[in-house]
Specification:
Serine Threonine Protein Phosphatase 5, Tetratricopeptide repeat; 541 residues; mainly alpha
Length: 541
Amino acid sequence: MRKTDALLLVVVVAVFGPSVFGGFVYDDQILILRNELTDSLTNVPAFFSMDLWEGVWGHEGDSGFYRPLMLVGLALDRALFGLEPSGYHLHSVAWLLLGVGLLLAWFRQLELPPAAAIAGAALYALHPIQVEAVMFISARNDLMAAAFLFAALLLLTGDELPTWRVVLGAVAVLAGALSKESVVLVPFLLVAADRVRDRPVRWEAIGAALGGILGYVLLRLQAGVGAPEASVGDAFTQMPAALAVYARSFLDPGLRLVGPSLDHVDVVYLWCVPAVLVLAGIAWTTDRRGYLGVLLAALTSAPAALVIGRTHLVADRYLTLAMAGIGLAVAASCARLPERPQRVVAGLLVLGLAVATSRSIPVWNSDVDLRVATAEARPNPHTIGSLAKTLENAGELDAAAEAYRAATQAPEPYPHSCFNVTAIHLKRGDAESAASEGLRALAAGCEASPELVAPMALGMALSGDWEQAEAHARWIDADPTGQAVLVRVGAAARRGDLEPLGVEAAARGGGKAELAEQVAWLLQTSGYPESARRVREEGLR
């Protein structure tokens, strides 16, 4: 390893090392803390026969993401570190370092000068866009896929292809695809890499890559994981706005936060102008190696278009692999400069990117800090509603209630916050607010979902407004909360009718005494002790 390569790795450690002080953020709360299968290494074989999210408590349906090696990594983390996040973060940084080392080795194989290679690798390793992939543990699969892809390119584009390189190359492609699906596009990169070096296509390399892809396809088929829902039409519709957001992300060294939703962000298309000028400058000054980088960036980011089309979320982690391609294009342009200017460019990039990225690391240290910073930078129903849920999970119920209220204002209340805007007040022990906030949220445009109406009806009953409570509880057919049932049975028992208690208990499959105790609590709390006594007696019969 060259001294300059080692120096870049040291800088990467210095920048991302403080991640060990970070916690679990964003979907880490679900994929890691609520995962029922990653708590034992004996479940590792099962990871190859399941959807990424299948082991998460409460998950329903098929996400379409088949990434068993990500689950293997999380199981290893849990075996070694329990639920202490510092170890998980160290693991993620290790994958970043491995990827940077392999990328530098591939750049040397492409005969890039040392300083130019450092300049290009710095864009992959240190650009602020990479903060999410490193600090968000559940995005580690992007770093894993990148490292395996770079290993495959290094092994399968060498001057000589002995059998061991072909076999290891196939394994690297398979491992990369089992980390993230976009690695299956590697055969196109191998063909382009041969053309860059004026060599005929080496079919043994292509065969190795196709063998790895075939192994991935067979494993995915036996797991029964379907393709993610996607619409090419939606992808094309969202792409202009997404490209404008990404242009700003690439050029603006500001804080990196949770990716914006295109439904709730003001897109500034003028950022495309400097981005196009930069790309034009690279295209004017680069060589064929640079065009290989452009192809790498395009192929590895293309699948993200389908995800953005479905979710409208423009996340930085979707560009993890693409940054290596952009880095190669920049390195090829830099290689045309004399040696001393190359060193200056490399030094400025390493220093500037390290400083810019270091500013964002502390923001990702806790979920609350991250959500607060995002809501302050982009105040809209989506960011404020996400902050509300984070505050609720952190036990800050009063602050969460205020945020839910702010996220459910007319004319476009945030749907997910509509599900929580009444229930949060019951958690706070404020039944009157549950009732009043429910009515306000409905007037603001929230859907009359069971998650909103049932807690609202319960709040009305607890506040003594039984007529309104029963009227709203009767709106609900399917009641996942069980609260509307309590209100309906309680309202009937208040009138002396205990028959609904038995009917609802039978519909539940038994448990009459348990239901009776819940209804009796509701009646007792709302000021009807005699009705509560009769319900308890009926529940024991």
